[in-house]
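Quick one: SAM-dependent methyltransferase from Celeribacter baekdonensis, structure tokens please.
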Amino acid sequence: MMKDVPSLLEATQANKAAWEASAPLHGTGAGWEALLKAASEPGFSTFDTCLAQTLGALDLSGKRAVQIGCNNGRELLSLASFGAVPAVGIDHSGAFLAQARLLSEAAKLTPEWIEANVYELPSDMRRFDFALITIGVLNWMPDLARFFEIVAGLMAPGAQLVIYETHPVMEMFDPVAEQPHEPAFSYFQQVPHRQDEMFSYDGQDHGTGTTSYWFPHALGEIVTSCIRAGLHIERLTEHGHSNREPEYDLYEGRAAQIPMSYTLVARRAG
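--- reply ---
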């Protein structure tokens, strides 16, 4: 192993511990109460306009959906407003899945919530008609090729996959650096970023947590891994807007606009 590069097991265990430690930040307070209330109302969806348009252009009616890296389940449950059946959410954090169960009760939906390292899923997993991966999931994955093989294995013949992720080019920049518009990292960096801060969606500093590892992946690696797993890419669209924490908003709306996010739609052969 290269120095500072953890093994797959070390990385996944560390990342699980970091998310478990951060879960209490998201399951209390006004934001959580508002989310619970919203989940109980008709047409519940937390998707932004971009992802909503992508999903709206697909025929998801009656499709059994799985989300890999589902966090607190809000996005899997949101798929119901597009006609899909939220069937299974997979995440390594039991604490976030406990929140998912509360949200699904509020929404009167009954998906199965599976706590597991995605690299060690149960051998009897079913296959699904639709798979969803959203913001940040790919960068927690030490072995991207193996990850996409597992994702493809969860998809029935003809099933579609939608990925809505941060663009790897934006990963080159640090919004809190002294000169945030100067690249801070190589696009081709292979050593993971070691992090110690608590995770949150509000852009606030919640102090130090436990060590975690964030793995940069170039767009070529993502696309190639997807193809080699047997998935046919139907669309790859790059966007000039952020789907990350608020501090990344400073990169939007510039004359020299960098790509900030992307949508990939793929299908498993029928």
